[in-house]
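Suppose you are handed a protein chain with no further information: no name, no annotation, nothing but its sequence. What can you learn? This example shows the usual starting point.
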Amino acid sequence: MTDEQPAPGQSIEVITLGEWMDRWLESYAKPTVKLSTYCSYEQYIRSHIKPQIGMLYMNRLRVDDLQDFFNERRQNGNVKGPGGLSPKTLTNMRNLLHLALDQAVKNKLMKENPIEGVRLPKNVQREMRVLSREEQDRLIRAARQAPEPAAFGVIFDLFTGLRLGELCGLRWQNVDMEQGTFQVCETRNRLPNHDDSIAASTTVKTVSSTKTDHSRRTVYLLDELFQDLKYYKEIQDSIAAEYPGYNQEGYVFCQENGQPYEPRTYQDLFKRCVRQAGIRDTNFHALRHTFATRSLEQGMDVVTLSRLLGHTNPSITMDKYGHALDDHKRASVGKLGGLYTGAKKPPSPKRGQER
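A reasonable first move is to predict its three-dimensional structure. Written in structure tokens, the prediction is:
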């Protein structure tokens, strides 16, 4: 990669990639994406794109420059130590550059988008951890026996499939205690801090926008789970009656002192339940995978499950959880047997019986 000077007499605006990425991030990305996405974009630009290729001029940017950049980051891109970036991170960064350079083409800073020619290693999806039915039962018992009332959230997640940030961001105002439904419309996460008035490097925020438009969804509660939720709310209400100021922000799952959980601290509660249940090698996201797998095993259709999970389209659900449908697919194909048998060619008449 070379720091080429702009050609004289250029009629288009001549700026470096680093200058354009800063402009694009603030003018085009920040007003349109959720906060966590903006934080990811900012980190990719600050830690990788600007230091490595930010000095290159937009009107001279070539496919080879970008391919060399991704090849180098694959080998040496880990900012915390030796090693490179994962295929998933490289793909995320390519998608970011694709958006930014597409906008640059529209703004006539370059004639075409060179990212189109970049090739990346295949992103091999890791095998999902799904709890067995026996593990699921043990975890439910452990959560019921936990001293913290909010351990009920582990059980709640096994039967709703919420993301951890969605669980921590759920408030009573978004729960319909008459209909047994709730709205997923907020998520609570720890994000890099971009507020100069706050000294900490990270901050915990509850934001109204979830992962995608499809993530804003209505979830219906199993009747038995709804009854347990009512009982859990009675416990919270009794605590609030005794201690004014308890859980003033109205989170469904709050700490014993009434403060909201952040995902990291709720992870600690989850891990205590997992240890009590004697389960190894799992994480909180396995609850979402387990909910999806059990739902398909029980005959839920993929479109309905996709909407409950907040996926953009059912094809994502099929890619992730299609393995759980193998037995269902075999049984469904077996139902076609009657059609096959009924359509068999009738036997030829015996000799002498022809007409």
